[in-house]
Amino acid sequence: MPGLTGKDQVLTDYANKLAVLDAPKGRSLTQDALRRLSKNKAAVISIGIVVLIILVAFIGPYFVPWRYSEVDWTAIRKPPDFDKGHYLGTDQNGRDMLARVLQGTQMSLIVAGVATIVSVTIGVIYGAVSGYFGGRVDSLMMRFVDVMYALPYILFVIILVVMFGRNPVLLFVGIGAIEWLTMARIVRGQTLSIKEKEFIEAARASGAKPFAIIMRHIVPNLSGPVVIYATLTIPEIIIAESFLSYLGLGVQEPQTSLGTLISAGAPVAEVLPWMLMGPAAVLVTLLLCLTYIGDGLRDALDPKDR
Amino acid sequence: MTDREPILKVRDLSVEFTISSGGFFGGTKILRAVKNVSFDLYQGETLGIVGESGCGKSTLSRAIIRLLPATSGEAVWLGSDIQKMNSNELLGLRKDIQMIFQDPLASLNPRMTAGDIIAEPLKIHMPNVSKAERATRVAEMMQKVGLLPNMINKYPHEFSGGQCQRIGIARALITNPKLIICDEAVSALDVSIRAQVVNLLMDLQKELGISLLFISHDIAVVRHIAQRIMVLYFGEVVEIGEAEQVTMDPHHDYTKRLIASVPVPDPKVEMERREERRRLRKTAAAAA
Ligand SMILES: Nc1ncnc2c1ncn2[C@@H]1O[C@H](COP(=O)(O)OP(=O)(O)OP(=O)(O)O)[C@@H](O)[C@H]1O
Ligand SMILES: [Mg+2]
Fold first, then answer.
1. Domain count within chain A
2. Residue A24 domain flag
3. Using CA atoms, how far apart are residues B65 and B177, in angstroms rounded to an integer?
4. More confident residue, A281 or A229
């Protein structure tokens, strides 16, 4: 029976309002993983360093007195000289090494970023589709991957260079398109196990279309191996780029990349050591940090700890 | 009950699986998981399906909603054969028949919040409903199944098993279905929570007038919730009838054994029943 004052009604309304207004955010599994990652010192420091390198590579050039292609005729093959603003010395053509290292880092990062995004996107979608549909679609799609695997990588790159010419970004879109093969296999394997889960059946039973199931239910649950693999693809592509530039198939003058700089510095390392030190230090730091981040992510995403 | 048209008519439904016996040259074997099953289901009624593990209960329920292809026979939903439905009719079927699954946590996408999970069927079947309207409906539904609406942004792993199953029930109810298939929906829950969820289902059914296909290997729970019971044994219907009759006066030996295996919380009665079970097994062995 309602009270005389109607306080029941008032209280119920109030309680309902409280209940609806104040809906606290839940902790998603991603947030959990990030929290674990933030406890890993090596990974946190590595992320800090990588972010710093990215910032310096993209903002730094505006604060350096020389441009990367500008020739200082008064300073050719000179060691670091603070008065003239050549903080890392100059190369054989009188170009400022610091400016060149910054530009090279920028180029390597762009190339690695583009190639990784391309390879992850293609690999995830290809693998998820193949694994989800299964049967004949799956066999066909995976046979294609096997064939692609069998083609020698370097041959493929040479064909791409011939096709795309000397446009570095386009070239590395191509490299990313080869790197997706392993990603597709990993994702397919994961999809096979995810699609047996009850929540996929629940989605099918409530009428979700295959594409919606792949995008909403399978892809978000791939996480772990995909994130780790993506992190480790970045250094792989930086190395691949360095290797190709070393062979003269990569980035073209006056633009440069870490690999190009190292290949130019290596032969003269004894007489002009500053030409090798700068780019080598950046490359080694980047690779080490990315490896640590990959390790940290692997631990953070490891389902064992949940 | 017989003067009304059933909403679901199943006639001679069979499901077969082809199993390759492994190896490159290995042949294939055919496993008949469901054999010539027939039954009717009326509006507002609960039909219990019992049988031991692996007797084809899940396979039958998946064939009814065409998650699996039936090999022969037909399942007729409101007058149209499910096997022959086009994609549009199938979408309507998926709106009318919802499922509740065995594993409460595994049946919820771990990357989605409770609110998104409950709203998903709504998004699929009523895409014109505005976001605000959807949110209110989800909140209402959460209240109806006994969840606080302010848990809407939480993720499945932050809920208990019973709460997860309530999310599953809310997801099943949000499209106003006519039939809900509960496949071992309470088997994974603790006994006390099991009773709560079963009672919730019964209340909701009374309130909304929906039909239930309640699948379980536990005849005690089925007797509590169902008006009629169908007993499956190796994919075949061995007995179907009123719950009273099937549990008190079973015709088939297998049903007798199934009922005899339910433990009773009285040591003396339990002792007698153990004797009874032993005797039944012996006669079954002698008959075989
Ligand atoms: N996809 C499949 N391929 C081959 N055989 C299957 C498949 N699904 C089920 N089976 C077989 O069909 C039979 C019936 O399985 P089903 O899952 O329907 O049993 P169930 O009654 O639901 O059992 P439980 O109580 O354990 O859930 C089992 O022998 C099972 O091995
Ligand atoms: Mg089952």
1. 1
2. no
3. 13
4. A281
